[in-house]
Amino acid sequence: MDSTLLKYSAKDYFFKAALCHFCVDMLNAKLAVQKYEEMFPAFSDSRECKLVKKLLDAFEEQNVDAYTDAVKEYDTISRLDQWLTTMLLRIKKALQDDESDLSLRSSSSPVPPLPLGYRHLAPFYNQLSSQCLNVLALPLSFYDTAVPPNLREH
């Protein structure tokens, strides 16, 4: 980075870009942070980079409390503006949704429950769900015979 002005604002741009990547995908954000550190080594030592790394770790561990603590710690020194608050809340919501998805998957029922507004569809939904589970339970050899030879991957 040759421009002094660009160096001055680079950490802010990289921080915001990393959060945008994080909203899309955690792996995407990790790769972006690595790229930004290579492009501008001073970014590695910035509070912004350290925050993004803490958030990535918390997200990977599905730890909402660690995520919240990292944001609070950052906010005590550098106040979050409206844009940063919005982005961080979007990421936190995704983390909470992932956490609830994990609890659904680990429950005794393999089929997620219907949302409240769709309870009238329960008979159809339960029948369809059981049919899908039956298809998933078929042995792999069934799929080999069900696919015509010319369409099979070699």
SSE series? HHHHHHH
Count of individual domains: 2
Number of helices: 7
Largest sheet: none
Q: Which regions contain 5 or more consecutive residues with pLDDT less than 50?
A: 102-111, 131-147
Q: Could you tell me the number of beta strands?
A: 0
What does this molecule look like?
It is a single chain. This protein is mainly alpha-helical and 154 residues long. It folds into 2 domains: 4-106, no CATH class; 116-151. The chain is 71% helix and 0% strand. It contains 7 helices and no strands. It has helices at residues 4-24, 26-39, 47-60, 64-77, 82-106, 122-136, 140-146. α1 packs antiparallel against α2, α1 runs parallel beside α3 (47-60) and α3 packs antiparallel against α4. It is globular and about 45 Å long. Mean pLDDT is 75; it is low at 102-111 and 131-147.
Write a concise synopsis of the structure shown:
Helices cover 71% and strands 0% of the residues. The protein is mostly helical and 154 residues long. InterPro entries: NSF_attach, TPR-like_helical_dom_sf.
List the helices and strands and how they pair.
Layout: H1 4-24, H2 26-39, H3 47-60, H4 64-77, H5 82-106, H6 122-136, H7 140-146
Helix pairs in contact: 1-2, 1-3, 1-5, 2-3, 3-4, 4-5
Defining traits:
globular; 0% strand; single chain; 154 residues; mainly alpha
